[in-house]
Amino acid sequence: MSTELSNRSTPGEKQDPEKEVTAAVGNIIEIPDGGYGWFVCAGVFFLNFGTWAANSGYSIYLANYLKNDRFSDAGRLDYAAIGGLAFGSGLVMGPLVRVLLRVSGIRTVIAAGALLQFTGTILAAFSTKLWEVYLTQGVMIGIGMGMICIPGTTLLAQWFRKKRSTAQALSAAGSGVGGVVFNLAVESMIKHLSLRWALIIQSIICAVCNVIGVVLIRPRDKHIQISMKVWEFKMFSYPGYWLMLFYISTTLLGYVVILYSMSDFTISLGYSSHQGSVVACMVSVGIIFGRPAVGKLCDMFGTITAGIFAQLVVAIFCWAMWIPARNLATAIVFSLIAGGLMGTIWVSLPAIGARVVGLRKLDVAMSMAWCFIGAFGMVSPIIGLQLRSSPPQGQSHSPLQYRDPAIYCGMVYFASSMTLWVLRGYLIARDKEAKQLGSHVDNEEADLPVSISNTLKGMFSLSEERKV
Fold it and tell me: What is the spatial distance between Cα 368 and Cα 363, in angstroms, rounded to a whole number?
């Protein structure tokens, strides 16, 4: 059947839709699965150290802003909005970054982003007005991070296939290693030096890491012949892509809340700001050990299968451990578990994207997906702080302040887990269709039709073709 369908039509002849699908999925894409790819993995590790790790340190700045009321005209939602802008203002500009990549190349874009991040952090150190902090610690740092992270995310998918999730997890651990450094160091620098010097030193560390990352990375765009489109509306006709976007949205709505809340949550239990920084640091420690472990499980059992259980465990622990937490030990254990599992999206997303739309369209699919990552990442901390209650009158803290955020995070992570379960069923059903057409791995299989009934059957089936 596949031989017959792969024959090309003659000029003027109406093309059979099945022939178009087969032509799209027929070419083999060679992947080294190692070699220089490990240096690229190290480069992305340093880029994550200088961006996501530094961003996780905002939880310390946020706790400091909330405690000391640094700007008289600022409310708690202002500080949450600044954190949201730092996380998502650059990511939401994914298509624009894609345009810059087409014009100037990946190293130039990342270098420009590193310069913007450095400048924004330095200027934030000397900001004295709220709008200046919005512009520097929010928008400038956020856009700089976006210009670094967006090009770097899909690099490893070009170098690895069988070890894709493992390589992605090892590089993602950079945000955990750096998070330990930034969460502990920032609190100590604020206490012994000043908030200004904490930002200045952070800017230098980030700049060094970003330079190392730029030197090590190397794309394989020409070999893979990736799509250079900035936006492709056809993506929205793929059910698998919509499921991926819903997975992104629900995860980000909870991820940033947990990431930014652990320090202030610990203070709400009656502990010191130093103890709050230790708990926030445990999130990063969890990332160091959790993400490589999750990556290995993804390669063993399938990226989506491992992701289902990781997201579900986070939901359960939000309800079962975060809500009743009343002491430092419980807060530390929860942060370790949540840190190791809540960021599974950074390990799995490129691999999921490659499975859903294929390697050649992965970059344009991610370009569009960054808009969702950025948008939901920006509103997430605002939702979290809005749900945070105030302590009873006459008291400075209360263990119930984070009850509602904990319930909320559990709900969105549960929704994320269920979305992955449906996506798993969809891909298992689609793989059966692809086998009949003689498709090769990670090619453009998104056009293959999959019925709802086959998707439901796939949710309760084991994959017969390849790991999902």
Answer: 9
